[in-house]
Amino acid sequence: MLEAMTAALARLAALDAVSTILIGTMIGVTFGALPGLGSVIALALVLPFTFGMDPMLAMLLYAGIMSSVTFGGSVPAILLNTPGTPPNAATCFDGYPMARRGEGARALAISSASCFAGSLGGVIVTLALLPVVKPIVYAFGPPEFFWLVAFGMVMIAFAARGNMIKGLAGGGIGIMISLVGYDDMTGSFRFTYGSDYLWDGLPLVTFVTGLFAISELIAYASRGGSTVADSVDMAGVKWTRQVAQGVRDVAIRPAQTMRAAAIGAGVGIIPGLGGGVASFMSYIIGMQRSRDESYGKGSPEGIIASETANDAKDGGALLPTVAFGIPGSPDTAILLGAFILHGLQPGPTLLREHMDIVCLLLFGIFVSQIATSAFGLVSSPLLARISVIRSRWLAPFVLSLVVVGTFMLNQNILDSGAAVLVGIMGYVLRRFGFPLITIAIGFILGPLLETSFLQSMLISQSGFGVFWSSPIALVLMVCTLSALFGPFIADAVRRTRRGDPSKKAQNNTAGRVGR
Q1: Would residue 515 count as lying in a domain?
Q2: How far apart, in Å, are the Cα atoms of 435 and each of 346, 432, 483?
C-alpha cells in the first residue's frame, strides 16, 4: 500500500499529470455550472477521446472532472437558485437567501472551502477503508437500504421547520410524482395517461431544474429587480472581505464539516445512492442538529452540510467501484467503463496489481479540488456580481440555459416543456407555503424506498421479519422510529414533568373560589 502511494505521488508530480488535472478541472467546472449537464455527460463526452492515452493520465482527467463539477454546480445554485447538478439542489436552500442578502461572495467562498474539506475527508475515508471494504459493501441489502432511505424520508419533518404538515404533504407530492412511469417490479405503467413520454417518468435533472430554476424565474418576472433584494444597500460592499468571512465560516465549524464529510463518504460507499442522497441526507441531519434559527433561510451551516457531503461522496463511491466493479454513483458508472476501456478490470485484481492507479485516482481528486477551491476563492468576488444584474437581463439568459440543458439530457424538447410545467407547479406550491425542499426530497428518495421495500418482500416471500433480521437493519429501524416518534415522546415527557397547564389553571381557579 505504501509503495503504491509513493509511486502515485511520484507520477502526480510530473508536469503532464498536473496539466491533465487542470484540463479536467476546467471541463468539470464548466459542465457543472451549466444546468442540466453535470459530470455524467462530461465524463461520457470525454471517454472516447481518452482511448490510447496513458491509463494514469486518463484517470487523472476523470478525477479532475469528477472533483470539480460540484463547485461548478453550486455557482448557479447560489446566485440564481438554479442547481447546476441535482445534488446542488440542497445548496439552493441557504446559498440563494445569502445571495439575496448581498452575501453571494461569502456563500461561494463557503462552497469552495466546503468542497475542499469534503474531498479531503472522502479521500481519507477511502484510503482507510480500502482494506476492509468488502464486509461494508456486502452488509447492505434491500432491508438495510429500505431503513436508510426511510430515515431520510422521516427527516422531511425536520426539513420543514414551522410548517410540518405542509412539509410532509410536499414530501408526499414529490413521492407521487416520482412514481410516474414504468414499474420494474410489476411491469405496468403508472399515471402515464396514455403519454409515451411519461413511460420513463420525469428525469431527475428535468424535475429539479424546473422546480427551482423555472419557479424562481417566474418570481423574477413578478417582482423585478435583481437577485439581491432591493432593501439591501450594496454600496461599498467588500467582496474580498466576504470571501475571507466565508472561509472563516467553514474553519470555525469543524464538527459540522466532519459530520457532513462522514455522511457523504458513508452514503457514497453504498452503491446506487449517489450525490443527491448524500447532500440531502447531510442537509436534513444538519438541520436537525443545528441551533441556528436561520438554517434553511441563509445559514452557512446549510451550505457546509450539502457541499461537503456532495464532494465527500466521490471518494466513498470509488470503494465499491474499484473493489467489486459495482458503481457507487452515476459518475463511477462511467468511470467503470473507462477502467475497462484502458484494460483495467475492477475487482481484487485491480487492487492487487494496479493499486498505484487507484491511489493516483484518489490523489488526483484531491489535487483537482485544491485547484477548484483556489479558483472558487479567487473568482468569487467577480462571480458574485452576477447577483446585482437586473432580472430583465438575467432571466432570459437563465431560461435559455435551462431549456438547452434539459434538452441536452435526452435530446428531447419535451424535457424542456416538462421542466416549465414543474416550475409553474413549484411556484404555485411555494406561494401557498409548501417548502420546495421536501418536494425534492420526496422525489429523489421515493423510488429508492419503493424499490428496496419490494425487493425485501421478494427476498422474504412476503414476510415482514426481513426488515429486522440483521443487526444493521435493526439499528436503522430503531433510529428511524426514534426520529419519527422521539419528538412527540419528549414533548409529552416535558409536559408531564411541568404538569398539565390546563389542570394547573383548574386548580388555581378552584383555589380562588375556595378563598
Answers
A1: no
A2: 42, 9, 20
Residue 190 belongs to what H/E stretch?
strand 188-190
Q: Per-residue confidence at 369, pLDDT binned at 50, 70, 90?
A: confident
**What distance in Å separates the CA atoms of residue 179 and residue 443, rounded to the nearest whole number?**
9
Look at the chain and report how many structural domains it folds into.
Answer: 1
- Residue 69 covered by a domain: yes
In whole numbers, what is the pLDDT of the chain averaged over residues?
Answer: 79
What is the spatial distance between Cα 240 and Cα 385, in angstroms, rounded to a whole number? 12
Tell which residue, 426, 442, 443, has the closest CA to residue 434. Answer: 426
Q: What is the DSSP string of 395-430?
A: HHHHHHHHHHHHHHHHT-HHHHHHHHHHHHHHHHHH
Domain that holds residue 196: 2-229+243-496
CB atoms within 10 A of CB 164: 15
pLDDT of residue 248: 92
Tens digit of pLDDT for each residue in 462-490?
678 888 888 888 888 888 888 777 767 77
Q: Contact, 102 vs 228, CB < 8 A?
A: yes
Amino acid at 216: E
Q: Is residue 316 part of a domain?
A: yes
> At residue 237, does pLDDT exceed 80?
no
Which tens digits make up the pLDDT trace of 401-430? 778 877 877 788 888 888 889 989 988 988
The alpha-carbon radius of gyration of the chain (Å, integer) is 24
Q: What is the pLDDT of residues 190-206, one digit of tens each?
A: 888 888 888 888 887 78
Contact (CB, 8 A) for 81 and 73? no
Tell me how many degrees the CA angle 353-354-360 measures, rounded to the nearest 5. Answer: 160
Residues 6 or more apart whose Cβ sits within 8 Å of residue 361: 59, 60, 62, 63, 318, 322
Does residue 236 fall inside a structural domain? no
Model confidence pTM above 0.85: no
